[in-house]
Structure prediction request, 464 residues.
Amino acid sequence: MADERFYVGTRKGLFRYDRTARSWEVGAEAFLGTGVPMLLPDPRDGTLYAAVEHGHFGIKLHRSRDGGGTWDELDPPSFPAKPDGVPDTMCPIRGIPVPWSLEKIWSLETGGADRPGVLWCGTIPGGLFRSGDGGETWELNRPLWDREERGKWAGGGYDYPGIHSISVHPEDPDHLLVAVSCGGVWRTRDGGGSWEQCAHGMYYDFVPEDQGGADPDGQDPHRMVRCPSAPDRLWVQHHCGIFRSADDGASWQEVKDVRPSGFGFAAAVHPTDPDTAWFVPAKKDESRYPVGGEFVVNRTRDGGETFETCTAGLPAAPAYDLVYRHALEVDRTGERLVMGSTTGSLWAGEEQGDRWRQLSAHLPPVYCVRFAG
Amino acid sequence: MVTVSFTPNLHRHLDSELTSHQVAAASVGGALDQVFDKHPRLRSYVLDDQGGVRKHVAVFLDGKSVSDRQTLSDPVAGGAEIYVMQALSGG
Prediction:
């Protein structure tokens, strides 16, 4: 059965949408006036987690047991005191120290179906945190944070690098892939004890190879998604195009000649068909608006050999909506999608995106959308 | 005694009303610590992971911004007033 509830995190609060007989309606609102950059509805116990971002007072984490009606605040992940004698890791672009301080919660994922209470959290400035107790306490993953290569990570759209995609292998919760803007893709097979770079094959088309254009440690995967039923199959919407992997990230191949553009932020993959994936194209790469003002969703059903342009129910040109990396998601059936834009539009898609329905054109800028069963 | 007050904008984010507090302390950090002991959640709203003042929070001592935002070592005298408020730079 298709998911009948989803949550929307925006620049000015959180909104819950519930399916009704004829459409969708807002069932709950929370944190109005405050940013909600990330959400996690935990399918294991129904808990909802929300990262809350205050302009002045820092990054917070809240938890709801009743679908967003009432909340309690948890201690957010926090960086330990920087030990004496540990040298600063410098931003390779600006030459300033990357702080040991939480700037943004950029990803939240559950840690495996058979490990209730285990959560992973990716942050700016590039720290990965693990909780074993449903978010009550968090610990920085030092093996990744201490990697020498972190000195090659740069900010992508923010001042410091960040972990925006965490993919726990559906058959082995000790096996994770995380994607970093801009630091490539990192894999652990031992629950975070050790890590290896897995962005080989990605490259920047505007940086010569002898200037580091294909250095995996500097790559900017905007979003990485894994097919749950074919976990070796992954898709990345990269800063310079769409890449796919059929070997759990060991190698990546570019999908060439994507029209109207291979640039974008969001990506979604069908839960049981790894050849079916969705992207929202935009004019590369400094421009970041729909090519020609024509807002469309790109869908492939043959592993990237060809793309279909989905437009039914989406606005006619001129439409300058941009979809951030966490603002497109497909439900557990692979038939229903939800998508929100920086201009506050929200759509539900049916039949794998053949039909879209606008649910609002007046929300705050949308940061993330997540289905919740 | 030192008076420590907080912007009303903090009230809506915390469970308890933050009235002014009278504490005995020798430094700004010492005064704030005493309030944080009573309201543990408040600490992370004012200070960052490393214990410094959040970049978009302002701490005033007798009308002037404190000089040490990292360790809050500015000394305080009896009758001093500390005020914690949001900085306009944060939005």
DSSP finds two helices and five strands in chain B. The interface with chain A takes residues 9-10, 13, 41, 44-46, 48-51, 54, 56-57, 86-87, 90-91 of chain B (CB under 8 Å).
